[in-house]
Amino acid sequence: MTKISAAEIRKLAVLSRLRLSEKEIELYQKDLSAILSYVQILNGADVAGLEPTSQVTGLANVTRPDEPIDYKVTPEMLLKNAPAVKDHQFKVKRIIQ
Question: Could you give all domains of the chain from N- to C-terminal order, each with its CATH number?
Answer without folding.
Answer: 6-43 (1.10.20)
